[in-house]
Structure prediction request, 244 residues.
Amino acid sequence: MKEQLYTIPVNDEFDKDCECPVCEMYRSLQNAAVDFTMGPSYMEDDIRMETNRTGFCDKHVKLLYQNQNRLGLALILLTHTEQVIRDVKKLAKSGKPAGGLFRKKESSGVKAYMDDLDDSCYICNRMANVFERYLVTVFYLYENDEDFRKKFAACKGFCNRHYALLYEMAPSHLSGKVCEDFISVLNKVYLENLQRVRDDLEWFTDKFDYRYVNEPWKNSKDALQRTIQKLNSIPADEVEGIKK
Prediction:
């Protein structure tokens, strides 16, 4: 079938030899969002107004720091910090703290503001709509593209998080026999590949036993990293200290 705007990146990620194509979709979007944020856009008024308002989650502020544009990040965080100071000054004057530890009362304005701030992130917001569009495209391709169905069935499965996400979304985007087939194939590739990684991990542990010291490593040298990806959605080459 003819490739469209969203089908190209989805197909590209499923072409990769990886433990979870959806993780790769997410990572590509995340890298693009970080590059955009730390590029010339951070000087644009509308972008700065949004970053001032939302700030960044723990994960993404670390990635922004690693981007090496320290001056750009400093300017972004400077005006964000100034926005927080202004907002808290207003709230602190007008609101009162909630009741004691065991009294069930609504949070004060300051606490509610900080809770909202803690849950907000410019990078997450920028990625959200496109990532959802990519997931919807997975279902579209599965229903309409035979080559993609073969590619899906031959992939190395998915991490726990993205397996569950695809499983949950399927009935909203597929129906009847197509939906049944998708769930069946999804379960198969998830379970078979989780078992594969589990077996590699077992052999990895066996290799620390003196009885197997002279046996080949087989496919187990990076089994620990790949297991972390399956369980925690962290691509193997992003696990600390590991490079493929």
Notes: The chain has eleven helices and no strands. The chain has two domains: 7-146, 156-236. Residues 98-104 have pLDDT under 50 and may be disordered.
